[in-house]
## 1
Amino acid sequence: MNKKLKLIWQLYPSYLIIIIVSLLTVSLYLSSFTEDFLLDNIKEDLIIRAVLLENQFIPFLTPLDSKNLDLLCKKAGKTSETRITVILPEGNVAGDSEEDPKIMDNHLNRPEILTALGGDTGSSIRKSETLKILMMYVAIPLCSKNSTLAILRVSLPITSINQTIDKIQSRIMMVGFFIALFASILSFFVSKWISKPIEDMKKGAAKFASGDLAHRLHEPFILEFAGLAELLNKMAFELEERIATVKNQRNEYEAVLSSLSEGVVAINSDEIVLNINQSAIEILKVPRAKVKGNSIQELIRDAEFNKFIKAAAQSDSSKEGDFVIYNLGNRIINCLSASLCNASDERIGTLLVLNDVSKIRNLENIQKDFVANVSHEIRTPLTAIKGFVETLYDMDDESRENKKKFIKIILKHVDRLYFILEDLLTLARIENRDEKNGIFPEEINLKPLIETALQIIQAKAAAKKITIELLANDRIIVKIDKHLIEQALVNLLDNAVKYSEKGSIIQVTALIQGDELLISVQDYGIGIPERHLSRIFERFYRVDKARSRSLGGTGLGLSIVKHIAAVHNGYVTVESDLNHGSKFTIHLLKNLIVRC
Ligand code: ADP
């Protein structure tokens, strides 16, 4: 991976390199320019000196006067602080300001001499073989009548030039160093100045990335960066808008999902719960924290249900089924499945819609049982009536006594049918009471109400020589539906009389206990076996069917009592001791008592 550098460390070294290279180039150029300039100046100077001296030397060449020529060289060389040499066309030195010409070598191989022999001004720079120092030589031909008599060469040591150039170079380097230092400090700040808006934008972008989309970058004064900051701000704004839209949609979707009374569970192809609504949590009775990310199999442990889920996962069409779930207390859960697809319409799991249909199914069962029970209850007397009517129809000459006997039996069954219908209608009326057609509570003294019920049952009790005792405060004023409570009491008293032996006692009490007003009917009759106690309030449930029927019971009396208590927001309880008697108690809320 490439090592990443901060922008400043990318910009700053490049500036530095550019500055150093520029300075070096400038310094080299200046050095070479200065050297050339100085050498040119010296050359010009040497040419002028040579031209000025030219005429002084010619007389010593025609004819050649070596001695004086050498003396002139030495004298002129001294005055002009220049080395002066006169070289004959064959290369021999005729005079030299510094050396004895006799010991000097032939100069014909010197480049400046060769050029001058060609008639031009020759020049060259090299180390003098005689003086062993770097010299500049300029040579001009000394001519007379178009013939070259000799070459006049003037030369100067140029070591001083090198020193001057060195000085100039070191000055340039020093100034260059300071310029470089200043430029590098400047470029450091310039780099910082350039990278600062980028750093700011980086911080702003980090804020966007961390979710702070309301943050805005301030626009730097560098045009390109300002454009970038503007675009980033626009992007953040649009993102914020889109996220807000997505959030709103999600909230709406969550609101819809959580307001559904049906449980909704989304699972993926591995049967892991992706999402679940509140109703599903309530139906499955599991803590929300335990649900997401767990398998649906762990939440609903039922082999049939698991088979259903597997089948639903493989099917594109919707499936439905009812399941009795053991780990949910044998509740009946109705499940409807649908494919769960992503935005590209690819299947990603299954959507399950759960409904706790225990109550509905129970009601359906109760209804079915009820219809079966009613049919059964009606069929018995109807069969008897039909049988006796047919018998009556067929017999012509039977005695009036016999006919009366049959008609009496028919009447008994008709009465039974009538009682069943009466009780069914009473039940239906109580059950169908709603706010519009509710109960009709009125303030009434409880004791006289109980006495009315006692009077209704009195004749039946008297026939069995049963004494009914009443223990009730005559100042209890309650707000109740007097007809319904009277009906409930009559039913309880009727049962107490029916299921008590001749000469027995029945005690009726009304008392306030805690938050309740209790109205009890206690008998000392046959009692009820414990296993039947939980069911005797069901419609048509009888402990002993034959006995109940023979006593004219419909099996609906206690059911009616239960419903009457319920519409008063109360309930009924039973305590019974087999062969020793039973005690039925209607529990009403104390707040029904107006005065006491
Ligand atoms: P029924 O018309 O048969 O009396 P109920 O609904 O009033 O119907 O009572 C249901 C059953 O409860 C009765 O058949 C009877 O077996 C039992 N039962 C009700 N009251 C008494 C009681 N006081 N003593 C003994 N058994 C009773």
Note: The domain at 442-595 is CATH 3.30.565.10 (Heat Shock Protein 90).
## 2
Amino acid sequence: MDALKRKVIEDGVVIDESILKVDGFLNHQIDAGLMYEIGEVFHSQFGDQGVTKVLTIEASGIAPAIMVAHRFNVPCLFAKKAKPNTLNEGHYQTDVHSFTKNNTNRVIVSTEFLSDQDKVLIIDDFLANGEAALGLHRLAQQAGAETVGIGILVEKSFQPGRARLEEASLNVSSLCQVASLKGNKVTLLGDDND
Ligand code: 5GP
């Protein structure tokens, strides 16, 4: 998706060889028009799959996911980070290791909002090791729901996330694929940016 690729190249800040900061349009300040367009693109890809719910994880997945959900005219559901002492009756739950924070969070979704009638489209901002997307897929499985696809805004293709999702037979679509962050520079897949 050209508009997103342009933003990543122009506004992305390389923190180190594995982390890209996108606070200018996605993770702090949000480009609403771009999120709207992202909804259109994922709808063109998954619109015939009978999606009943868009599932993401708080917090940074919510901005794109809500626009995707709006386009599909279905609810946007986000997995919440559970408080340590919360009793999790009435919830599906799983543990997700955070790549950027290097900690593990228990995340929950109420049984009220996900069931075996649902066809779920998982949306997230980044794909690194696939932990967040696989965790969301596990929540869908606990509910007996079907995961029809995974929509990612920025895939870091030098990390193993895509391979892990494909191993789990999940259909992954990424709008921007980053080949490398080496040399303090964003290089997209199939593009040396020279
Ligand atoms: P994964 O779960 O695939 O290992 O990592 C994806 C999750 O970690 C996303 O939900 C995203 O919030 C965060 N993340 C991973 N890599 C990056 C990165 O390079 N930049 C930012 N801003 N977030 C990242």
Note: Residues 32-46 form the longest helix (15 residues).
## 3
Amino acid sequence: MAKEPGSSKFQVDLRGHLRSKGVSNNLTHLICEIADASKYVINAVRTGDLGVAGTSNLYGEEQLALDVLSDRIIRKRLIHSGVVCNIASEEMETIYQAKANAGGLYSVAYDPLDGSSLVDVNLAVGTIVSIFQGPELLQPGRNQVASLYILYGPRVSLVYTVGDGVHEFTMNHLMEFTLSRENITMAPSGDIYSPGGLRNKYLPGVEQYVQYLEAKGAKLRYSGGFVPDINQILMKGKGVFFYPMLQGVPNGKLRMLFELNPMAFIIENAGGAASDGTRRILDIPVEGLDQRAPVFIGCKEDVAKAVEFLNSAPT
Ligand code: AFP
């Protein structure tokens, strides 16, 4: 379970916490710039146009005006941060080079508003960010130097890791992020499961895994938003999310660069695990912006059980 920091009238802010973790000035600046940009995304989510943008993203999916607006907000902030060389967004077709000289700089992959189609039914959505040192974005997720997400729910929270624990910040009435949970850790196993995809398209091993979870009394919790669904499992410290391979869809739906690598980096740093059913997500080579993978992510024993069912059932 997450540790509540000692109650103190001196709230720990994001910049102070990053510094206390020995994070470099450039990476501290970058993470704080992303946190600050989220304030404008929040405003767009709460008051912006819910219509379509009339364009499509690199997956050929129709973009909402909110997708385009939140993408522009974050990308401009990254470009002007002065510490980013390459940028990839789920909403952009290609990698954008912000600076040619990569010395001391970072590359960022982000999903500006994951689950954006949920905004018009007033469900929680989020921003997901993956950060690498240097110019290369197409590399295994184990090489990330940081990952974070911002959850736009009843409260706005930011969760980050730089490989030294997982920490949550909550936005206060002044729109400042202050530390709310430090060194969040997950139990070995839990009683929540968050199953994505159409059940009637599940492979036998996945179907048997669901029946195993139901038999042990696990509760189904699924909103359709990756960020709130993962956040629930992380903050309760128990459970498993999966968006599996489906009949006819061997790679599932979720994107390696923009969703799976950043979340796997966070979950592993909280003592959990993330697998595609055979490989550790963070070890999977990433060859393209549009690369997808099946995912089982959450408590270590629950993920291991999924892998066991998948590899023992006839395909
Ligand atoms: P969008 O960002 O295109 O809305 O997709 C969100 C998402 O990739 C992820 O947030 C959810 O876990 C998943 O889709 C839900 O997919 P289903 O709607 O097929 O359950």
Note: The mean pLDDT is 94.
## 4
Amino acid sequence: MAHTLPPLPYATNALEPHIDTMTMEIHHGRHHKAYVDNLNKALEAHANLAAKPLDQLLREISQVPDAVRQAVINNGGGHINHTMFWEIMGPGGGKPSGPLADDIAKTFGDFGQFQAQIKQAGLGRFGSGWAWLVFAGGKLQIVSTPNQDSPYMTNQAPILGVDVWEHAYYLKYQNKRADYLDAWWNVVNWKKVDERYAKAKAGTL
Ligand code: MN3
């Protein structure tokens, strides 16, 4: 079955003023759409791979034939990363609650230190990529990946991720990635992040 572009769960202007409408339109409607289209193209002659859930395909990336492996990493990663990105954002902001709040405090000291480490991971990524909160080896960890590499490829469950490609922020923030990363916390939908954490611990994310 072909992969499809999921609709945004809110209007393209819902994250204003922190993420501008035009960035959302281009990011979702063109960049994410291109990952979906190119993933489907890469899998056209591989019905067995096309039938697998995308997270499984990425976990089993070593089994993907050489000829299409990099296309799956780039476009399958791009598709699954952005699907998560839209899901964990929304108007509102706030803080995590419940077990995630407790475990963030236990693992990183407090919420402010957690935010500082995510920011550092995003700023430290040279070029394009992502900063992540992942659940792996039974614990929370902050990591960064280049390009569209998915944490699933290294058996890490992505709880939260922030896109630090220039296409995610350049229209509004130009070269000021740090300002974008600071503002991004205003549009995190912690209810969804809490849900992803519960699923990750249950082994179903
Ligand atoms: Mn992007």
Note: The CA atoms of residues 12 and 22 lie 8 Å apart.
